[in-house]
Design goal:
Elements (H helix, E strand, L loop, with lengths): L3 E12 L10 E16 L5 E5 L1 H4 L3 E6 L2 E6 L1 H22 L8 E6 L10 H16 L6 H20 L5 H8 L2 E5 L4 E4 L8 E8 L3 H14 L1 H23 L3 H17 L5 H12 L4 E4 L5 E7 L3 H13 L3 E4 L8 E3 L1
Parallel strand pairs: 3-6
Antiparallel strand pairs: 1-2, 1-13, 2-6, 2-7, 4-5, 7-8, 9-11, 9-12, 10-11
Helix pairs in contact: 2-3, 2-4, 3-4, 3-5, 4-5, 6-7, 7-8
The structure holds (3R)-3-hydroxy-3-methyl-5-(phosphonooxy)pentanoic acid (PMV).
(3R)-3-hydroxy-3-methyl-5-(phosphonooxy)pentanoic acid binds next to helix 5 and helix 6.
Length: 339
């Protein structure tokens, strides 16, 4: 049986994270940083999974006490990565109508990024595994036509594994490009721009999972629903203004909106001290806007530069502050099957 190979982009949220969980539209884009998945059918009901090194980190947890140093494999982390893959196979087989464990799969998966830094790695694993399972079972004749089905199935994988998730990550990664996400539909409309967006995307370490950070924001909402509703309205307005600024190539306006969105995320209590320092320093050296991207608690951030030259300066300063820079551009393509 032939091997299917996939290239899956990661993603960043430009505007509207957290509010999107409560039905407010958001803007996200795919990045040219890819996860690779390949697989074949092997029969016998066995699923063999080969997970690359970077997805395994942190495979070890270190326990220190006065008289003991113990380094142990981090079972929970590995279980989480594997649960996205196994759930995706279950969801997909149920969709196709495979009821017995007659098929087995051999799957190899690798990524240049660790999971849980807010770059959509888990959504990319879900989108990739769903696409792989559909392709291996001859369910894809035209990938472009299957992308909304893939996004929907991958979204249910995320909801099962995480407890809750908006459709933003899975729809953006399946379809690709700069997308205006309408979570209530759900739809991911392409924002068609014909210029290069001078962004710098990086990440710092993250101490909490997306699920924990989403729960933290939910607690805030429960304390004062009225105020929370007003905050959602403001985020919704920022997203609409940002869409216009993107279409009109108004980079100054876009930067200002990024700073506003960052300030609101800060008021929701999910921006780390490191990100605030990075935001402050990057603005000092000319960034038009800087914001935490995704669930927060550290993790991903995005800065907007005035020009290509200024982009390099921002990347150098962010790196000197301990961040890892992973992209200076967006990409147009969603999940791809390589032949
Ligand atoms: O940090 P990430 O890539 O897991 O993104 C989470 C984005 C949230 O809006 C906070 C949650 C969601 O489901 O959309």
């Amino acid at each position: 049986m032939s091997v299917v190979r996939l290239k899956i982009p990661t993603k960043i949220t430009l505007f509207g994270e957290h509010a999107v969980v409560y039905g407010v539209p958001a803007i996200a884009t795919t990045l040219p940083v890819y996860i690779s998945i390949s697989g074949e059918k092997i029969g016998g009901g066995i699923i063999r999974i080969n997970v690359g090194k970077s997805l395994q980190t942190p495979i070890y947890s270190v326990i220190l006490s006065r008289d003991r140093i113990s380094i142990e494999p981090d079972q929970d982390h590995m279980k989480k990565v594997l649960s996205y893959i196994l759930t995706a196979i279950d969801v997909c087989e149920e969709y196709i109508g495979i009821t017995q464990e007659v098929y087995g799969y051999s799957i190899a998966i690798d990524s240049p990024l660790p999971v849980s830094v807010g770059l959509g790695t888990s959504a990319a694993v879900s989108v990739g595994t769903v696409t792989l399972c559909l392709a291996l079972n001859n369910q894809i004749t035209d990938l472009e036509n299957s992308k909304y089905d893939i996004a929907k199935l991958a979204w249910s994988v995320e909801k099962i594994v995480q407890g809750s998730a908006s459709p933003m990550d899975t729809y953006t990664i399946a379809l690709g490009g700069l997308r205006y996400i309408e979570p209530s539909a759900p739809m991911a409309h392409l924002i068609d721009i014909d210029y290069e967006l001078p962004i710098v995307v990086g990440f710092t370490s993250r101490t909490h999972t997306t699920a924990e950070l989403v729960r933290k924001v939910k607690e805030l909402r429960e304390r004062n629903e009225g105020l929370f509703k007003e905050i959602l309205k403001i985020i919704g307005k920022i997203v609409e203004e940002a869409k216009k600024a993107l279409i009109n190539q108004d980079l100054e306006g876009l930067g200002m909106l990024m700073n506003m969105n960052h300030g609101i995320l800060q008021s929701l209590g999910i921006v780390s001290i490191e990100h605030n320092i990075i935001a402050h320093m990057l603005k000092n050296v000319g960034a038009l806007g800087v914001k935490t991207s995704g669930a927060g608690g550290g993790g991903a951030f995005v800065a907007l530069a005035k020009s290509k030259e200024s982009q390099e300066r921002l990347a150098t300063v962010a790196e000197s502050l301990g961040a890892k820079i992973i992209s200076r551009s967006i990409c147009q393509k969603g999940v791809e099957i390589l032949r």
